[in-house]
Design a protein that fits this description.
Layout: E1 3-7, E2 11-12, E3 18-25, E4 35-41, E5 48-54, E6 60-61, E7 69-74, E8 79-84, E9 93-99, E10 104-105, E11 109-113
Parallel strand pairs: 2-11
Antiparallel strand pairs: 1-3, 3-8, 4-5, 4-9, 5-6, 7-8, 9-10, 9-11
Length: about 120
């Protein structure tokens, strides 16, 4: 059974860089020719796709976040990471990692941006 698990700091200060990790267990990511994604949900709002990364190839990012977001692999640890720079309180959200075509989702992790 494949599981995705997000981890990272629950509180980030404005202007800092948010870093989150998604560990994929139960299936080596090197066997997959699919995209893995980061999605977030701000309080009281809908889901927002942030970006996706294929095992082989370049990541794709939301146009609204492209200047601040980066997604990368750490295949040695079977995980991928999200970095979001210059955060503001508007980046407060529950952040999810997912494999959308198979509907595999992590449980989500709350990130609050506040001084």
């Amino acid at each position: 059974q494949v599981q995705l698990q997000e981890s990272g700091p629950g509180l980030v200060k404005p202007s800092q860089t948010l870093s989150l990790t998604c560990v994929v267990s139960g299936r080596p990511i090197t066997t997959d020719y699919v995209y893995y994604s980061w999605i977030r949900q701000p309080p009281g709002k809908g889901l927002e796709w942030m970006g996706s990364i294929p095992y082989s190839g370049s990541p794709h990012y939301s146009p609204s976040l492209k200047s601040r977001v980066s997604i990368s692999w750490d295949t040695s640890k079977n995980q991928f990471t999200l970095q979001l720079s210059s955060v503001t309180p508007e980046d407060t959200a529950v952040y999810y990692c997912a494999q959308l075509s198979r509907n595999w989702w992590g449980q989500g992790t709350q990130v609050t941006v506040s001084s």
